[in-house]
Specification:
The protein has helices spanning 12-20, 24-55, 64-120, 123-128, 131-173, 175-182, 185-221, 223-231, 235-287, 294-335, 395-402, 425-430, 446-451, 459-468, 472-476, 495-508, 525-538, and strands at 357-366, 369-379, 384-388, 410-415, 418-419, 432-435, 513-517, 543-547, 559-564, 567-572, 577-580. By secondary structure, it is an alpha/beta fold. The structure holds adenosine-5'-diphosphate (ADP).
């Protein structure tokens, strides 16, 4: 059962474009502000060129009147400069927070989409994936996209715009000098393309290796993981594992930075070359009075001073853009994973009245391993069935198919005569109670943990469920009873106590079908006896499937489903075979 491969070809940019679309009004406004900013910035060289040619004009002797007039001009110029700065900063102050807000909103939507999508994915996805790696995509990659939108996108647009306008102005001032200074530009583009590939490869590697580190850490920080490491005395081995992952992440990071800065340095050298050309040839033109005044040269020089850093910025932003696009890709990869269990568009809400379960020629396997090879049997309403067989033969798999944690590759499963694939997933799962073998409790109160199965349940209903699951007595002895926090920072429960909470949680929603995986495991003999008594009470009027290795301990059962080598045999309690394939 191989997972569907994500379609990498849906471009990251297309994805980002779709996400920016709802903000197009704000973006257009910000863009207008940027145009105004660009114009204002480009006006400065004109103003200074004017000052040089008209205010400082190098006449030998200036009459007192002329000095007064020039001073007046200087005052005017100063006012213009002041005006430029005031307007520039006002525009910036207006536009920047809007870009910040667009970045925040896009990141919010991306994370929300990811979380929503992750919840639609089937159990097999979670079994294959490392939680650290997935959470790194939700947090780190989205963060990178957000920062790019907030800090770079607008700047990138303004840089491109200024590059165009400054080039136009330079061509207008002196086309020959302009072409000469612009001759280095194609080399900048070449440098960008030369460095793009290694930067993006190492950026991706660094991201993935970093996710490996957080994956390893999460495993080891988990109480179970930490206990296993201590019990096996493999701390050194685990430290080595993390060290290796961190080293790989560090190496990729360093390599990525090496290429990133090499690109910057090469681009800066090109700028140096351009400046030498400009000053040399420009100086020659002014000295020989070949169509360029000193003021114009100054304007030209200042335009180049604006143009080159912008170009350099643009090139380095292209690197950042590549890294951001890698992150958008990584997010899109997750969003494109199709859940292997899907709801039909015309699915109906499940209403399980009888609780009759029928497997019809069910074939199921993981990859090349066949677990069920054409299983057919019927479990009648209100029957209490033990699911037995050697370890690893497929008992959990068989019960997991009922609530569609997986879908069979062939055959059908019916509940009350309806194919389970015709039901909506939530309605189906709401009516089937599961007590998994590994109890999972949230870091919350006892009450919240049990109510999790049915948030609308009243306190009385929760207490009733815990009484039936033989959990009420021990909950009452906890420091704050039902309000006692459990898990991190709260009380730690024994494995048997956790199991009883799991049973209470499963029966709270009063399911027509109850599935329990080894409910007696980790209980001491006395608790076991009580639990069997309790189970006998709570299974009435339900179809119950209990996975167990100890059939003798559960006297309430009236049928046994034995699974071995992909084949299922159904026996009654006297051992008589009712059905065998
Ligand atoms: P049981 O509950 O009887 O111990 P399971 O249903 O858990 O058996 O597993 C049946 C077989 O399928 C085992 O060989 C197990 O290794 C394999 N298996 C279980 N889950 C997966 C999975 N998600 N991917 C691949 N193989 C799996």
């Amino acid at each position: 059962m191989s997972p569907p491969l994500p379609n990498k070809k849906r471009t990251a940019l297309g994805d980002l474009y779709e996400r920016l679309k709802p903000h197009k009004a704000v973006l257009a406004l910000v863009f207008l502000c940027l145009v105004a900013l660009a114009v204002l910035e480009l006006a400065m060289p004109q103003v200074l060129g004017y000052v040089f040619d008209h205010v400082f004009k190098g006449d030998e002797s200036l009459s007192a009147e002329l000095v007064q007039e020039r001073l007046r001009m200087l005052w005017m110029v100063l006012l213009v400069v002041l005006g430029i700065y005031v307007v520039r900063n006002a525009i910036y102050y207006f536009a920047k927070p809007r870009m910040i807000s667009v970045g925040e909103r896009v990141a919010f939507d991306m994370r929300q989409d990811l979380v929503r999508h992750l919840h639609t994915l089937s159990v097999d996805f979670y079994q294959r994936s490392n939680p650290g790696k997935i959470s790194s995509r939700v947090m780190r990659d989205v963060q990178r996209v957000k920062e790019f939108l907030q800090d770079e996108l607008a700047q990138m647009l303004i840089n491109a715009l200024m590059l165009l306008v400054a080039t136009g102005l330079m061509l207008y001032l002196n086309w020959f000098l302009a072409l000469l200074t612009l001759a280095v530009m194609p080399f900048h583009v070449l440098v960008y393309y030369l460095f793009r590939k290694p930067i993006s490869t190492y950026a991706r590697q660094a991201s993935e290796r970093f996710a490996d580190v957080s994956g390893n850490l999460i495993e080891q920080l988990d109480a179970g993981g930490a206990a296993t490491v201590k019990a096996a005395a493999t701390q050194l081995l685990e430290q080595e594992k993390i060290r290796q992952s961190m080293r790989r992440s560090m190496r990729a990071q360093i390599k990525q930075s090496k290429y990133y800065y090499l690109q910057k340095v090469t681009a800066d050298m090109l700028i140096g070359l351009g400046t030498i050309l400009l000053v040399g040839v420009g100086g020659y033109l002014v000295l020989h009075e070949r169509g360029l005044t000193g003021g114009q040269f100054l304007t030209f020089y200042l335009l180049v001073r604006i143009l080159y850093p912008r170009l350099l910025n643009l090139v380095s932003q292209a690197g950042k853009f590549t890294r951001m696009a890698t992150s958008v890709d990584r997010v899109a990869e997750i969003l494109q994973i199709e859940p292997s269990v899907r709801e039909k568009p015309d699915a109906i809400p499940a209403e399980i009245h009888e609780g009759k379960i029928e497997f019809r020629d069910v074939v199921f396997g993981y990859d090349s391993l066949t677990v069920l090879d054409g299983a057919s049997f019927t479990l009648g309403p209100n029957e209490h069935v033990l699911v037995t067989g050697p370890s690893g033969c497929g008992k959990s798999t068989l019960v997991n198919l009922i609530a569609r944690f997986y879908d069979p590759q062939k055959g059908e499963i019916f509940i009350d005569g309806v194919d389970v694939r015709d039901f909506t997933l939530t309605s189906l799962r709401r009516q089937i109670g599961y007590v998994f073998q590994d109890p999972f409790l949230f870091n919350d109160t006892v009450m919240a943990n049990i109510r999790y199965a049915w948030p609308k349940a009243s306190d009385e209903q929760v207490v009733e469920a815990t009484r039936r699951a033989y959990a009420h007595e021990f909950i009452e002895t906890l420091p704050d009873g039902y309000e006692t926090p459990i898990g991190d920072g709260g009380v730690q429960l024994s494995a048997g106590q956790k199991r009883r909470l799991m049973i209470a949680r499963a029966i709270l929603k009063n399911p027509r079908i109850l599935i329990m995986d080894e409910p007696l495991v980790s209980l001491d003999p006395e608790a076991r006896e009580k639990a069997v008594e309790g189970l006998a009470g709570l299974i009435r009027n339900r179809t119950v499937l209990t996975i167990t290795h100890y059939p003798g301990e559960l006297p309430y059962a009236n049928k046994q489903v034995y699974i071995c080598d992909g084949h299922v045999t159904v026996r009654d309690l006297s051992g008589r075979v009712i059905h065998s394939e």
